[in-house]
Structure of Zinc ribbon domain-containing protein YjdM:
Amino acid sequence: MNENLPPCPACSGAYTYEMGALLVCPECGHEWSPASGAPAGESSDEGGVIKDAVGNVLADGDTVTVVKSLKVKGHPTGIKAGTKVRNIRLVDAVDGHDIDCKVDGFGAMKLKSSVVKKV
């Protein structure tokens, strides 16, 4: 346990750790920005601004790159890191999935903004 990191805002777990620019709770899987306490990809502003993994503001029609490999149910292989996704559409978050898109070879799916980077 790192004494300098705050506890998880979702479950109050004390074992938070840093992963890039985010803090992560291993107990519940919650990811958030250390400055705001807001979940990853969400802003504490009322405007509903959605940001990518490095803090860039996303908009409908943007092209993004997946920053880490993702498992996909029903497919023997997952989405590899570096895969480009074009023409994203931002939607209201459902279980943290706030991007609606089509990934080549996989079809339509929802992604979390915390696993993509704006190109």
In short: DSSP finds no helices and nine strands in the chain. The two ends are 35 Å apart (CA to CA).
